[in-house]
Structures are given as structure tokens and as C-alpha cells.
Amino acid sequence: MRTVDPAKRRARRRHIVNAATELFAAQGFERTTTAEICKAAGMSAGNLFHYFRSKRAIFHAVFVDDEPEDGVATKSERLAAARAADDPWTALLDTVDLLAGPAAEPLVPALVMEAMIQAHRDPELEALLSRDNDEERSTLTTLLRKASASGQIDPTLDPDDTAAWVMALIAALYTSAATEPSFSPAGQLPTLRLILQRFLRPHATPVPEGPRP
Amino acid sequence: MRTVDPAKRRARRRHIVNAATELFAAQGFERTTTAEICKAAGMSAGNLFHYFRSKRAIFHAVFVDDEPEDGVATKSERLAAARAADDPWTALLDTVDLLAGPAAEPLVPALVMEAMIQAHRDPELEALLSRDNDEERSTLTTLLRKASASGQIDPTLDPDDTAAWVMALIAALYTSAATEPSFSPAGQLPTLRLILQRFLRPHATPVPEGPRP
DNA sequence: GTCTATACTCAGATAGAC
DNA sequence: GTCTATCTGAGTATAGAC
């Protein structure tokens, strides 16, 4: 009897996901038809739906089917390393680079944008993405707290709020790249670092107003 | 014979747009059906399409049908006033408030997000929005240039790049509000101002490295 | 190939302005 | 009374998931 070859099946799934990824990035989820995906992947509708239960499932796979490659640390591992690093400020800058880096890849900003939108309407995707998101934000919060304790950043900043803003600034890199053709994420990364540096590093305390004892 | 009453017709269009706005904000453009809009507006499909040529036209109207109210300055007028203001730094902060303010309204962040997405796929909407966008950015560029000349901000910052980043930071307020339920735009506006202040205000010039004559 | 979902249409009913 | 803006809702054509 014929048995399934898991490696072959995975490869076939990846082939479909790769084809679909370009379409989703260029046209978005709703405007990409399964017929287009079939054509791009070179297969029939029947065959496509043998590998994925729905168009939605293909979209989800774009964001989770990343096979770990040997010898390369995963994002999770690198975040854990940052949390354990000796110098929290350097680790913070490294983490920002880690999170902002993919914005320079051609399809990624559009896909991230689309994922944000779709997460609104798709609780399963929402859950999928928020796991990643929580890990990123909690790493930043940890680093901000440590850097604050060691006097490397302004201690008046609230670590939770500030982590949310660091995430927002990184997200801005993606959305700007997705919406403005002239915006180059690679070229603007140094400016992002500059903004963060000036925002976070300790400042001379302003003289408090009002009468003093 | 019966004649058209322009005021009544406008009011009816607004009624439809208001009903549709909530649906577009909650579900997005593609997932909102014309049948739903009809139901929400309390009218038949035939009547709906008597007022709008297409579903798309309703979506466009969400962003352009803002009637100027008497006694209240329009955004354009306020931007022009800022460009002509005496104190460019104060005018810059005011302009940031003006552009960031709507993020505090409940439906706006989701709508702005949806507009960004749809603009990708709809050249007419793209043109519509980029007119607004260009006016906002060029106002910021002008103010940055003036503030730079008068020593109010760091002269090493490029006005065009910096204006793009100020826009990106404001956009981050909208996207964060749209995607993170715990993020309060009104509460975070002071932090946005703080980030901008620290980013833009003049800094002590670092001692240049290398040999000097 | 099948079948559902949905943007839009049309033939006609109602009613207000002249 | 006539004419036409406004409105109805069943109907159609088509797209697109499966």
C-alpha cells in the first residue's frame, strides 16, 4: 500500500506556501484567489485542498511554517540570549536590530501589514501572532528594566509603556516600508536607533518648578 | 414636478456613510457586504445604489465627505496657519497634536488602517489619501526647516527624512491603537511628544574623532 | 465541476413639488 | 394632475471557495 512520505508532503506544502506568499504580499489575502494560488503553484484546486483545509490555512502557514535551519539560532533563541546578556543596553540595540531586520526583505513589510489586518478578523491568527508578539515585548520590557536599574536608560520611563513604544517604532518601519515606496528600511534603521537612543538614554533632570523648602 | 433637494440628498448620503463607517471599521472593506450596509442604513439595495455608484464609492466617501462646519477651521486651514506661525517649534507640536488627535476617536484607528490597506489596491483612493498626506508632510518639513534655522531643533537632522519619521510616529499611534486593545492613544500622546522632543531638540555636539588640523 | 455568496440592476410603486 | 426623485425587493450575473 502507498504510504505518505512526510518529507515530501512538507516540501509540497512549502512549495504552495511560497507561491501563495508572493500573491498575498502583492494583493492581500482577500484579493488573492485560490485559483491564482493553484496556477502559481502549478496544481489543481483538488490537489491544493488536499494539502490545506482552506485558503485561510495557507495564509496561517506563511507565518508559522518556518522550519528551523541547522546551525542558525531561531528568533526565540536569540531573544532568550538577549534577556540573559550582561550588558542590557547593547542587548536592547541588538534586539531592535533583530526585530527590525526583516523589514528590509522585499515581501515582508506588505505581509506583516496584511497579517496585522487579518488578525483583527481571525482569532486563530490573532492567537498565533500574539504569542510571538508577547515574547518580543516581554524581552524588551526585561531589557528596559535591567538597563534602567543599571543606570543605562532614563529611570523615569515606565518599562511596559516604553516597550510598547519601542515595538510601535519598529512596527512603523514595517508600515512605512509597506506604504511609502521611497522609504528604505535598511537606510532608515540608523535613524530608528538614533531616535531610541535619544529617547531612552538618561537625561539631566529638569529643575522642578515651584517653591522649595 | 418634484425637484431634488440638495440638502436632503447630502443628509441621506451622510446617513449611509455613517452606517457603513461602523461596519468598515469593525469588519474591513471586503468583509462588509452591501446587504449589511442596507440593513444598517434601513433601506433597500436599489435605494442605496441610487446614492452611491458602488460599494467602493461609499468607502471613499468615508474619507472625503467631511462637510466643513461653520466656525470651525478645517484641517487644511490649521496646517496653513501652522506653516505661517511665528514660533515653528510650538507650531510643530500643535501640528502633531492636530494629526494625532483623531486617533483617540473610537472608530478612527481601524478605519485609517483599512484605508492604508485599500489604498494599495485602489489607485483612486490612493490619490485621494496622498493629497492629504502630502499636505501634512510638507507642513512638517517646512516647520522642521524653520525650527532648524532658528536653532530650535538639531540642525544635523535632514528635514525630509525627519518629517517622514514624525509622520511614521504619528501613524504608529494609529496602528497601535488599532491592533493593541490596551493601547490608549489619548494616554500615550504625551509620550509621543516626549519622544519627539528628545529626538528633535538640539544636542551637545559630540567631539569628532580622528586627527584635527 | 459545484454551489454559495454577493455586488449590483430593474421594473415598478409612492409621493412630493410644480 | 403631471412629472420625477425617492424607494422597494426580487432577480441576475459572476466570482470564487472548495
Q: What's the arrangement of secondary structure elements?
A:
2 copies of one chain form a homodimer.
Chain A: H1 6-27, H2 34-41, H3 45-51, H4 55-64, H5 75-84, H6 88-100, H7 108-119, H8 123-149, H9 159-179, H10 185-200
Chain B binds a DNA duplex (18 and 18 nucleotides) through helix 3.
Keywords, separated by commas or semicolons:
homodimer; 213 residues; mainly alpha; Tetracycline Repressor, domain 2; 2 domains; 10 helices; DNA-binding
Description:
The structure is a homodimer of 213-residue chains. With 213 residues, chain A is mostly helical. Chain A has two domains: 6-64, Arc Repressor Mutant, subunit A; 75-200, Tetracycline Repressor, domain 2. In chain A, 69% of the residues lie in helices and 0% in strands. The first copy, chain A, has helices spanning 6-27, 34-41, 45-51, 55-64, 75-84, 88-100, 108-119, 123-149, 159-179, 185-200. In chain A, helix 1 (6-27) packs across helix 7 (108-119). The mean pLDDT of chain A is 91. Chain A binds chain B through residues 27-28, 30-31, 110, 113-114, 116-117, 119-121, 161, 164-165, 167-169, 171-173, 175-176, 178-180, 183, 188, 191, 194-195, 198-199, 203, and chain B through 27-28, 30-31, 110, 113-114, 116-117, 119-121, 161, 164-165, 168-169, 171-173, 175-176, 178-180, 183, 188, 191, 194-195, 198-199, 203. Chain B binds a DNA duplex (18 and 18 nucleotides) through helix 3.
State the share of residues found in helices of chain A, binned by percent: 55-70%
Low-confidence stretches of chain A: none
What is the H/E string of chain A?
HHHHHHHHHH
Termini of chain A, distance in Å?
Answer: 91 Å
